[in-house]
Amino acid sequence: MYPVRIPKWVTYLYPHRLWHKSRTEKKLYLSFDDGPIPEITPWVLEQLDKYNAKASFFCVGENVEKHTDIYQQILEEGHQVGNHTQNHLNGWKTPTATYLENVAKCQKNVETQLFRPPYGKLSRKQAKILKKNYTIVMWDVLSGDFDPQCSSKECLQNVLRYSQNGSIIVFHDNIKAWKSLQYTLPRVLEHYRQAGYQFCAL
Ligand SMILES: [Zn+2]
Cα separations (Å) of 99 from 62, 91, 104, 105, 106? Predict the structure, then answer.
């Protein structure tokens, strides 16, 4: 299991990582990991555009290489991009030198100062080195869109129940998440627009 809402003590353990933004403004920070891919990312961009919403895309370098046109579209539409490694590596299972090399490889495709570790997994050593050049962006609300055990309705509830001012919310523009994302994203955009929120890029 994974926590939908990140407990405070976790954020205290890793104070140098970004868990959320200002709690005083009615702003939300949607983020999409693992793209860009033609099956889903253009659809996400279309939804965001309907609501004049900006978001952040943590891109996998090899997907950017394959789908440069979609990557360009993300930038042209005013969204933020972040590094999510070249090949979606698990930091806990990858030696530090290999991991850093993979981040650097992604950086050639994605020019950014934001980094999000795949699976949220990063060793202390990897984090210590990466934080010199990047803001390590985590989240405070995990939609659960990637989880086959989590229904689309639960995924929506996760977001609606736990989001607050300044929340960084995780979705995925990957195939596994498509069913839940399709259901949840338009409803989240509608719900929070009506509640007077603005959707911003990091
Ligand atoms: Zn990922």
Answer: 15, 7, 9, 10, 11
Structure token pair of residue 154: 């639960």
The alpha carbon of 88 and the centre of ligand 1 are apart by a number of angstroms equal to 6
Distance 85 CA to ligand 1 centre (A): 9
Give me ligand 1 centre to Cα 11, in Å. 20
Q: How far is CA 59 from CA 81, 117, 125, in A?
A: 7, 11, 23
Q: Which domains does the chain have, with CATH numbers?
A: 8-199 (3.20.20.370)
pLDDT tens sequence across 122-140: 999 999 999 999 999 999 9
pLDDT value for 9: 83
- Which residue of the set 140, 145, 172, 173 is catalytic? 172
Q: Which residues place a Cβ less than 5 A from the ion ligand 1?
A: 33-34, 118
Whether 33 sits among the annotated catalytic residues: the reply is yes
Structure tokens at 145: 């869109």
Active-site entry in 33, 140, 145, 147: 33
pTM given for the model: 0.96
Among 158, 89, 76, 151, residue whose Cα is nearest residue 120: 89
Active site residue 140: no
